[in-house]
Specification:
The structure is a homodimer. The first copy, chain A, is an alpha/beta fold. Chain A has 17 helices and 27 strands. Among the domains of chain A are: about 150 residues, Rossmann fold (3-Layer(aba) Sandwich), CATH 3.40.50.980; about 70 residues, Luciferase, domain 3, CATH 2.30.38.10; about 100 residues, ANL, C-terminal domain (GMP Synthetase, Chain A, domain 3), CATH 3.30.300.
Chain lengths: ~550, ~550
């Protein structure tokens, strides 16, 4: 603990060593929620996937059996178990059986290219890989490279009949099928492992962040953090009993925003889906009477604008949606609302176990117009219950005023801040300073305390001494009907130091000129914020679909030079 | 922590000392929820009492000011601040400002006699006493005794205009009025103390248990336990946003079952009431649109059977009620249900911060009859989310089978088990054994895992080698229309070792003979469980209304001898 134990009065002398008895001190771990839910609601459906329905009792039995199976592979305690999989039941179960077996879960972004996956397997020192057959080709170079180095990574294969493709399994790769390992190590209640851990601060998972440049960084979570994330999300999102949850968020993102554990704790029904396809999502929403889901704004966008979008997502009840990332456009929010969806915007980073700010709805917002509501809800909000403190630090390391204008860097303190970056002291040191985790995101605080992101620290444009938010210009550009995608970066400028340079991809069949877009921006922005230049064309992106601003910055520099 | 840190692979070497940075390790404390709620919902009503309404911002300001006021009295850190008060706003606020000031909260049962109060003030080494003027006479002997010993306890007086009585303040007692202390130390946001603590295992409160014999024991709670109690209650009871809570549970019982902090975390509105009087409760339920309250079965009984009972407790919505203690009779449960009240039965002890088992409703119960539901809901249930494990231990220290018949002692493990008894190593040692806290309560586990209390260990009757639950016989007696109150204890018996002896107080105007009641019991119980003797008359009780079985046991022994 960061501070020494305080000195207590003599009154407490006889209790000095009493606070860590096995009866009154239990290490916090989110895997304990599975055991409780399976005990209480054994017959309720826990995990649903196409025609598979596993009750909570079956889910527990599968996880316990797989933990035994994993232990049988002869790996050392705390070995890294990497996972490259879609949102199928096996992926869900891995969030319990990997820690249950005493090992550490490392889910990998399925959109990454083979080279980065290979790098991750090597960097995280993976002892085993749980891989979906369709994704096996992406993992092969990594598996072979490890083998060549003498590390024969154990491969557990998810061979899903619902897969679009079933690539051949090369002869040089030894795999055991998930279902076989499960069947071979089938366990009954008397043989179950305890869902306890020795140390709540020991590693639970490693989540690699896909930065927009360079190699990803391995963010380490511990059991205490994920336990508090679970309970804090229940309180902050006011999750009711038995939520019907649709797993649209990839579980490889911050352990699916921790919802694996949250929905288990509330004895929900978790509907898995392999591919995100709007009509399938709409069907599941109605069939499964979905009450909760999460998704990036792009998912909301896709749902709201799909031709097959139903009048109501689920005619039975309100659908609660947690969304994170850039704020969804007001029109999308309004459309989702019309479809019976209550959207809560949140903010977080891989480094903070996912969401730590939430646009908590205010009772007073109910009297406001749809437009005002969209504005209010588009902000990232206030701290979740498990988040101790969030401040916006100005350049003097002092909190900025809550004036809705002065930008500061978001700094965070709480038990859901990562332990640090794996094998990367430099990056860890840079992230932790003065008792805060420094997010690199710039934001303003409004008078009501709600935080609104303005930019990544490195994406800010400083023109004539004025800070300009690239997001603000992008938002203005998006209001033009012709703009499909937009990204704004700084461009060196002789007079002003920097000036905004906009890269725009027009919608199919739409046209717009540079002058037209600059003129359009002037309708929405102060003059000094207008783009100095607009360049048309496709935008470069990372494997995860993030726009590579550093590539654009290089282009802008060349154009200026 | 109970175990040493596990050895991690070299992969984690650079993170070895990283898990307790000020940014990623924050000591858990329930007082942090006040700061969050006041930040987010400053204008929502927080605490309501007659014509007083304090918003959350005002409540925070009052607590911060009182913490400063308390600190001004010159007490050492972790000094005991005793409180003898009704459920008024001051009592609520003490749950925040006492720990905020760095001191330890000791709420005292208002029904205790002056002698015991005096003993508690001395035993807990009270440095200050927050006392309601109406209760001052009960505290005077203790204050004077302390003064005589050279410990001049600081007295803070709650002088409530709503009190039934305002006894004179003796000249030898120096008091400062609550409102004066508050006004003298009024603080603004810039001066607020941080709602953080250095050590989550440091004492937060002392709650004396009123045993049925001997001096009470001082149960010590820590910040971590109460924080987890708060979040675990939100998850277990599925508390929604902004609950409208009526504080019928005395806050001196396990810190009001922890609901002070729970309702604060969910930004509820807490309605205080000084005296429990059915028509006043009904009025508040409707006026304040109450959605949640807690109460002993006697309170439900009183409400359900009151002449002025309305058709619906609150016509606007369901009222959720948490009840603890003896199971409410089926007729009371049915009546409450009819009045729009959803009752959840829980079990806990002062030693476990309050509730740790809950009769979690099963979706399948909705198809059952009202009678079956009452039976199912009358059980104490399964563990709350923050409770790690609950077992029923047989005489061989092994868990008993879940057959609904075999009794075992309830043992508990979890972070909401007390640190221990203050200055009482013997009692603490007795309560903690083999990694469990031993409750002294005997129960059975049903096939569905739900636990049902049968008796206190020391109240069990062993007749001819068979265990007989005194509660079972009492329940049978209560089914007789003439029985107002009943208590069964063991009576020495030449042949059987022990035999049940029933003490019965008849309802006003009702009659029944010994033979009639024994015959009645035979309709409901196995022959060997029938009372060997029935004695009529008023039952002796403690200050808190508990029947003094040890007095009855003495009587029974005399009668047998």
């Amino acid at each position: 603990m960061p501070t020494d134990k305080p000195v207590l009065p003599a009154l407490y002398n006889t209790l000095a060593a009493r606070d860590t008895d096995a009866a009154n001190f239990v290490a916090l771990t989110p895997i304990a929620f599975l055991s409780r839910t399976a005990d209480i609601h054994p017959q309720l459906p826990g995990v649903v996937y196409n025609d598979q329905v596993h009750t909570w009792s079956q889910t527990e039995q599968r996880c316990q059996s797989m933990a035994a199976g994993l232990q049988s592979l002869g790996l050392a305690p705390f070995s890294t178990v990497s996972v490259l999989a879609f949102n199928t039941p096996e992926m869900f179960e891995a969030h319990f059986f990997v820690p249950l077996s005493g090992m550490v879960l490392n889910t990998i972004n399925t959109r990454l290219e083979a080279d980065t996956i290979s790098w991750i397997l090597d960097y995280a020192e993976a002892g085993a890989l749980l891989v979906d057959r369709e994704l096996l080709p992406q993992a092969l170079p990594g598996l072979r490279a490890a083998k060549a180095k003498g590390n024969d990574i154990k491969v557990i294969l998810i061979d899903d009949a619902n897969a679009n493709e079933a690539p051949a399994i090369p002869e040089d790769i030894q795999c055991i099928r998930y279902d076989d390992l499960l069947a071979q190590h089938s366990r009954n209640r008397e043989q179950y492992l305890p869902t306890t851990v020795a140390d709540e601060l020991a590693p639970l998972s490693i989540n690699f962040t896909s930065g927009t440049s360079g190699r990803p960084k391995g963010v380490v979570y511990h059991h205490r953090g994920s336990y508090l994330m679970t309970l804090g999300t229940i309180a902050g999102w006011a999750v009711p009993r038995h939520p019907k949850y649709l797993y649209t968020v990839p579980m490889f993102h911050c352990n699916g925003w921790g919802h694996v554990w949250t929905m288990t704790a509330m004895a929900g029904t978790i509907t898995c889906l392999r591919y995100i396809q709007p009509t399938h999502v709409f069907d599941l929403m109605e069939q499964q009477k979905i009450s909760h889901f999460g998704g990036a704004p792009i998912v909301l966008n896709m749902l709201a604008n799909d031709e097959a979008a139903p009048t109501r997502l689920n005619p039975q009840n309100t659908v609660n949606c947690m969304t994170a990332g850039a704020p969804p456009p007001a029109t999308v929010l309004a459309k989702m609302q019309d479809m019976g969806c209550e959207v809560m915007h949140v903010y977080g980073l891989t480094e903070t176990y996912g969401h730590i700010l939430q646009a908590e709805p205010q009772p007073s917002w109910q009297q406001k117009s749809a437009g005002e509501n969209a504005e209010l809800k588009a902000r990232q909000g206030i701290r979740f219950p498990m988040t101790d403190a969030v401040e916006l630090m100005g350049s003097d390391d002092q909190p900025v005023p809550a004036d809705g204008e002065t930008m500061g860097e978001i700094v965070i303190r709480g038990n859901t801040v990562m332990t640090g970056y794996l094998k990367n002291t430099e990056a860890t040191d840079e992230a932790f300073r003065n008792g805060w985790f420094w997010s690199g995101d710039l934001a303003v605080r409004h008078a009501d305390g709600y935080i609104q992101i303005k930019d990544r620290a490195k994406d800010i444009i400083i023109s004539g001494g004025e800070n300009i938010s690239s997001i603000e210009i992008e938002n203005a550009l998006y209001k033009h009907p012709g703009v499909g995608e937009a990204a704004v970066v700084s461009m060196p400028h002789d007079k002003w130091g920097e000036t905004p340079c906009a890269f725009v991809q027009l919608r199919d069949g739409q046209t717009a000129t540079e002058e037209e877009l600059i003129e359009h921006c002037l309708q929405h922005l102060a003059r000094f914020k207008r783009p100095g230049k607009v360049i048309f064309g496709a935008l470069p992106k990372t494997a995860t679909g993030k726009i590579q601003k550093y590539e654009l910055r290089k282009k802008a520099e060349k154009l200026a030079g």
